[in-house]
Amino acid sequence: MEKYKVVVCDHIHEAGLEMLQNDPQIDYVFAADVDKTALLDVIADADVAITRSSTDVDDKFIGAAKQMKAIVRAGVGVDNVDIDGCSKEGIIVMNVPTANTIAAVELTMAHMLSCMRMFPYSHDHLKNQRIWKREKWYGYELKGKKLGIIGFGNIGSRVGVRCKAFEMDVVAYDPYIPASKATDLGVKYTDSFDEILGCDIITIHTPKNSETIDIIGADEIAKMKDGVVLVNCARGGLYNEEALYDGLKSGKIRFAGIDVFKKEPATDHPLLDLDNIVVSPHLGANTFESQYNIGTQAAQQAIEAAKGIAFPNA
Ligand code: MLT
Fold first, then answer.
1. Same domain as 242, residue 207
2. Which pTM was predicted?
3. EC (predicted)?
């Protein structure tokens, strides 16, 4: 019986690991906690690797993966995978595009609501400082606010639907979708980026690539309303971090909800010094439901790719 080696480079759900373990043709190695040099040794004779945000598939990785047929990115974003480099070496790159959609959508809502009501701050005041000061915590309502969504794919469109339920006025900007995708959901479609910049709240749900890095910078922030709220649960660097910092510091941006950073982990980032920001450590995919979906789908794709049966979501 032919055997295939699958290396799991990052933490995935136990159910995915069990699928790999239970397949008699798969030898799987769990290498999530090994250092980079050791990982390069482990992948040298692997047929497939499963990776997440913590493993960059760069030239060193690709150079070491001498026998690799495919990489499964356990999640949606492939910005930390050198796809051209993989293609040159004949390595097929797959992702798991919809498994964590709802987790990212709901985290976006949590950030948006937290920004409007400063919820983590009032929580900290009462719970950790034992201060009961109701008059300190006046927030804003989502109802009636104009929301600009940049990127209206799986995640952005679902954020739009939820924000309609909050009685917001929702506008979508996405040059890659037909306008009807938005209008069918009761969302206004615009091809004017300036219209998005004029919204009360802006959230972004695009992949990270050369078109979207720094899509919001100092010039765009200057065009925004005073007191705008910005949310980013997609990728660090879509909002230029220096411009975001300056905008928050000056009060031009009233509040920001940020789940992702240009360089992660980000434990010593200037944005963390501000007190008009809500942050989380890249939790867009971190629900038990999503992790189950991602882990099992990634394992299934890895097994099929290792055996050469199929390469879904390539
Ligand atoms: C994604 O791209 O889906 C997520 O960022 C995956 C992750 O949490 O690593």
1. yes
2. 0.94
3. 1.1.1.95
Residue 89 tokens, joined:
């070496």
Same domain assignment for residues 117 and 27: no
Q: How far apart are CA 283 and CA 110, in angstroms?
A: 11
CATH code (residue 192): 3.40.50.720
Model pLDDT, residue 133: 97
ipTM for the predicted complex: 0.92
Ligand 1 center from residue 75 Cα (angstroms): 5
- Is 254 known to be catalytic? no
Q: How far is the CA of 2 from the centre of ligand 1 (A)?
A: 32
> How many angstroms separate the CA atoms of 232 and 155, rounded?
12
Q: Provide the domain limits for residue 262.
A: 101-279
| Residues 76 and 122 reside in one and the same domain | no
Q: Active site includes 134?
A: no
- Ligand 1 binding pocket (C-beta < 6 A) is 52-53, 75-77, 100, 284-285
Q: Is 73 assigned a catalytic role? A: no
DSSP percent split of the chain into helix, strand, coil, nearest 5: 40, 20, 45
Instruction: Determine which residue's CA is closest to atom 1 belonging to ligand 1.
Output: 75
Atom number of ligand 1 nearest to Cα 285: 8
Alpha helices in 45-100 (DSSP H): 59-64, 83-88
Q: Tens digits of per-residue pLDDT, 255-296? A: 999 999 999 999 999 999 999 999 999 999 999 999 999 999
